[in-house]
Amino acid sequence: MDSEDDMMDANDVESVDDDFYSGEMDADCYSDDYGDYDDDVDEDDDDDSGPDYDFMAEAADDSDVVAARSQLSYTVLKEEDIRQRQEDDITKVSTVLSIPREAACILLRRYNWSVSKVHDEWFADEEAVRKSVGLLDGPVVRFSDAELVCGICFDTLPRDRIASAACGHPFCKQCWSGYISTTINDGPGCLTLKCPDPSCQAAVGQDMVNALTSSEDREKYARYLRRSYIEDNRKTKWCPAPGCEYAVDFVAGGGNFDVACLCSYSFCWNCTEEAHRPVDCGTVEKWILKNSAESENMNWILANSKPCPKCKRPIEKNQGCMHMTCTPPCKFEFCWLCLGAWSDHGERTGGFYACNRYEAAKQEGVYDEAERRREMAKNSLEKYTHYYERWASNQSSRQKALSDLHQMQTVHLEKLSDIHCTPESQLKFITEAWLQIVECRRVLKWTYAYGYYLPEHEQAKRQFFEYLQGEAESGLERLHQCAEKELQQFLTAEGPSKEFDDFRTKLAGLTSVTKNYFENLVRALENGLADVDSHAACSKGTSAKVTGICKARATKGKGNGKSGGSSRNGDD
Amino acid sequence: MTSSSAPSRKALSKIACNRLQKELAEWQLNPPSGFKHRVTDNLQKWVIDVIGAPGTLYANETYQLQVEFPEHYPMEAPQVIFVPPAPMHPHIYSNGHICLDILYDSWSPAMTVSSICISILSMLSSATVKQRPADNDRYVKNCHGRSPKETRWWFHDDKV
């Protein structure tokens, strides 16, 4: 196989610097093109790179992008911060418009907690704004009697047991309490509470809620108000991690939606799924749907089962002879191959492990349609299973790495610091290595969803993608190995050693190289592997050879799953 | 049909009793015109005759409204339906359910049976054509005797 040579050219540098992006490789035309990524951008721009153009141009200035990414475009808000910000906004509006806090609160909620919007609307047409939220200038009814009739229970009561919103419609305090409580228990609609009089639009604010209801209802109302502050505000969202009560305030721009909450959960601010670079939100949605979809189960059933000829329940046959007995109460006995009654079978039809009737019918083409469908379902299911398994195994690897990281931080670092007489602050390189592993597992996981949706016919891209992914896997494997296995000996060492210093250099080097590689990988995948197109156009002559390389790479690497990198090196 | 299979209700709270007694007394003094309360000893379920207003499509026709009160009336809305045969109307289903916002989302405890009756009569009077809602058959079939208060109503038209 002539491709082996090329593979060796591309992979025979067995050092830490064995990095696809370092530009050390020269034989492989892909790596040339890719290694000089930044320099090539100007040429690429001349190509018809379509919608990717903008991203390419942005990516061209590497340092800027990195700077933009390292700058946080969001703030994590704790409950206290949320309360504080909400209070501040209310105070601001209340002061500028010279209206009570409750009124400011009602206005802010109406305009999705945007202070500037409230100001704009209010100063453009105060009367219209007042009308739209039910903030009255003064009462619409006035009573001078000592006793009033409550508009709900119709009891006649002394004034001190009556309360009213700004409109003046009288209701007794007990009825108010029932009314407000019922509305609060109906949900967040209580934030637009109005006077009970059907013809009256007067708003009922938090002051009345606090004055007229139980402490439980007051707390519920305050919680709805806080929720509204986060949920109705376009700049904020709750962290979606279960049990997490923090929110994130996001400043648009940068095109990167990844957000890391203080609870350590990372998620995409745009779609609120877990962080998923390099794949886009749409792909994640499709993939998650697919993972949970009934359709995959149906595909499996179609591919691996046949319906009982009598009761039609699907039956999976995973071993044994062709004589099937359906589960009770059906208990129908039939032949798996031809689905005929077993009573018609026996020695003369081929015994337990064959069926002459089936063979004969198959010759005549009777089973073709159903068989073909089953075969197709099986193929598509196999493809999905391939990607899903790897997606899921990186996910569990990541979970494991997270708990290892935790173990490291809580137990091992102290021990290491003791043995090697090094302050823990000098051992940060270990934590950094583990954080990098966790991040890489996350990226790698999503590359499998990316791979699943990469169109079958875009051969060059698929091959390039699988090459990059394989390199990423072996690079990460090396880092993981070093951080996990090679560290062990130093945990049981008796004292400081030169080896530990070497280990430090190696692990820190691997961390930085892997970080670099993954950042480039993410960027390349995010721009849709755009440089493959330009490459394919300019090097038709060599494409046959390249196909050879990548096929060999793909089958070997993928077949062995995570150990792809090392097994390849063994072959070499 | 649907009325008899409505879920059995909890007894009225003291507040609800007081208020209903007051409403009933007021009704007897001042009945809304076009309505007749059928006297029973059941405070929790009123049956009211509705007489179509003169000069409207329902002139000289009489229908029956059934009003059932929940434990926490008037904080919660009463359940109001026509006893079939219900009047032919674009917002009244053949099983007697009425698509009228004040009976559901827009209910306010300051409303009364009397104010509901007036709203319903005005809804009938403003009809220009006697016909069932477009989705009548589907809706009635899917109701299976459930209370209209369990329906998620969509109030599309406040003219009729």
UniProtKB/TrEMBL annotation, chain A:
One GO molecular-function entry: ubiquitin protein ligase activity
Lineage: Eukaryota, Viridiplantae, Streptophyta, Embryophyta, Tracheophyta
Domain of life: Eukaryota
Entry's EC annotation: 2.3.2.31
Bias-annotated ranges (Acidic residues): 1-51
Protein name: RBR-type E3 ubiquitin transferase
Function field: Might act as an E3 ubiquitin-protein ligase, or as part of E3 complex, which accepts ubiquitin from specific E2 ubiquitin-conjugating enzymes and then transfers it to substrates.
Record Pfam families: IBR, IBR_1, UBA_ARI1
Biochemical pathway: Protein modification; protein ubiquitination
Coiled coil: 360-387
Source species of the chain: Turnera subulata
UniProtKB/TrEMBL annotation, chain B:
E.C. number: 2.3.2.23
Limits of the UBC core domain: 15-160
Coiled coil: none
GO molecular function: ATP binding; ubiquitin conjugating enzyme activity
UniProt cross-references to Pfam families, sorted A to Z: UQ_con (PF00179)
Keywords on record: ATP-binding, Nucleotide-binding, Transferase, Ubl conjugation pathway
Keyword ATP-binding annotated: yes
InterPro entries: Ub_conjugating_enzyme, UBC, UBQ-conjugating_enzyme/RWD
CDD domains for this protein: UBCc_UBE2W (cd23808)
Function: Accepts the ubiquitin from the E1 complex and catalyzes its covalent attachment to other proteins.
PANTHER family xref list: UBIQUITIN-CONJUGATING ENZYME E2
Name under which the protein is recorded: E2 ubiquitin-conjugating enzyme
Organism from which the protein derives: Turnera subulata
